[in-house]
Amino acid sequence: QVQLKESGGHSAQAGGSLRLSCEASGSISSTFCMAWFRQAPGKSRYWVASIYAAGQTTYHTNDMKERFIISQDKAAKTMYLQMNNMKPEDTAIYYCAGDDNGCESVVAGYKYWGQGIQVTVSS
Fold first, then answer.
1. pLDDT interval class at 19 (50, 70, 90)
2. Distance, CA of 98 to CA of 101 (rounded, Å)
3. Are 95 and 116 within 8 A, CB to CB?
4. Are strands 46-52 and 33-39 parallel, antiparallel or unpaired?
5. Which one, of 6, 54, 2, lies nearest residue 26 by Cα?
6. Average pLDDT rounded to a whole number, residues 58-87
7. Within 33-106, where are the H helices?
């Protein structure tokens, strides 16, 4: 069983930056993938980026890859999302997700979820 816990900055001004963290606890397999999703009010949960826990391979959604960067500290079993040049439309609940069966870009591809963290960007 794996537990995921998000932490990090909660608010920013437009054009500013925030970094979110997600710490994993429990047994992590060699094929474990961690991901960030976000869910804006009234919208579906949307995939942002993924990273393999055992390596450095990353995947980013095209519409945010210039501003949002996923990374990790393998020793600390912690994943990060660096968000730059933030916009008010980035306001959402951000979720950390994980699964033993590789990286996907859909909600159904992840078994483990954090509780989510609210991020608000003001103009």
1. very high
2. 9
3. yes
4. antiparallel
5. 2
6. 94
7. none
